[in-house]
Amino acid sequence: MSKNRLWLGIAVLSAGLIGTAALAANVKEKASDDKVKALVRAALHDRSDFDLPLHEEETIRKSFTLTSGTRMLDVDNVTGSIEVVGGQSDQVQLVINKTIRAESKERLEAAKKEVTLDVTEQPDLLKLYVNGPFRCNCNCNCDNDCGSGWHGDRGYVVKMDFQLQVPRNLALKLKTVNSGNISVRDVIGNFSVNNVNGAIDMQNVGGGAARARTVNGGVKVVFRENPKENSDFGSINGSVDLHFVHGLSADFRFKIFNGAVFTDFPMTSLPSQTASAENRNGKFVFRSDRYTGGRVGAGGPEIKADSLNGNIRILEQK
């Protein structure tokens, strides 16, 4: 089939002139859903090697066996990368390259005590959680402003780079904030991937619901199976590249500000969703999601893609 790449810039532009205030509100909502607002504050306190002259490295190795039919891996990191590769084994093989930078020996020892890897093993879940003073430990919901989630400059930075070999059929929930990308290869199952200061790269994945979002970096997803459920992809400062296999049928929803939407697939426009009305203190407030819709094939699951500064590409694998 010939590749006639269509430019949807005109259609998207009509819905893309949304104003930074509206998009900022949407970004705030996304951040709240992912509970990363407090962690972003922590990321802003990253310090240079000049400020933190002491340096210590450690390699952590662990293995876990997942036996249940319904399985999920949940990795909740703060500073560092996450790399996941699927294979035939029923075990999870974990390697963490841990680096501590500190301003003094006292602070180096404090980092060893205060920053921990908390492991939760359940029949259908393996959770790896990097814990420390940078986490929100206030007595209320972390989405509220009752606590910043950051307890000041600790005089150290602890970076954990995760490398995991996992069973091929596994649901994934991955998060990191600072100083690292997230990459996934050869894993089939639902996934939810969130980054803040880094890219997301997923190869040969798919089979269910999919979500991948970052703030500073690109999002690239290459599917081995087209999504069968509603999915969501986005970046604030970066492009979104989605590679689908032949025979795609889906309903797309696009939102973009500085950029354009390109597609390899013939696409027909969908009507904009009707604005919803809400009665607030005796006044009606009308809300619109400001997305532009396009249907590929006979339609199917809804796939959302948005970017503030970057292009969106809907590509067919060769």
If you had to describe this structure to a student in words, what would you say it looks like?
- This protein has four helices and 24 strands.
- The chain has two domains: 1-31 and 220-318, no CATH class; 37-195, no CATH class.
- A hairpin with a 2-residue loop joins strand 6 and strand 7 (125-131).
- Helices cover 13% and strands 48% of the residues.
- The longest helix has 15 residues, at 20-34.
- The strands form three sheets. The chain has an eleven-stranded mixed beta sheet with strand order 1-18-24-16-14-12-10-4-8-5-2. An eleven-stranded mixed beta sheet has the order 6-7-3-9-11-13-15-23-17-22-19, sandwiched between helices.
- The protein is mainly β and 318 residues long.
Blueprint (SSEs and pairs):
Elements: E1 6-7, H1 9-16, H2 20-34, H3 37-43, E2 54-65, E3 72-76, E4 82-87, E5 91-102, H4 105-114, E6 116-122, E7 125-131, E8 156-167, E9 171-175, E10 182-185, E11 191-194, E12 200-206, E13 210-216, E14 219-225, E15 231-237, E16 240-244, E17 250-258, E18 261-263, E19 267-270, E20 276-280, E21 283-287, E22 292-296, E23 302-309, E24 312-316
Parallel strand pairs: 3-7, 3-9, 4-8, 4-10, 9-11, 10-12, 11-13, 12-14, 13-15, 14-16, 15-23, 16-24, 17-23, 18-24
Antiparallel strand pairs: 1-18, 2-5, 5-8, 6-7, 17-22, 19-22, 20-21
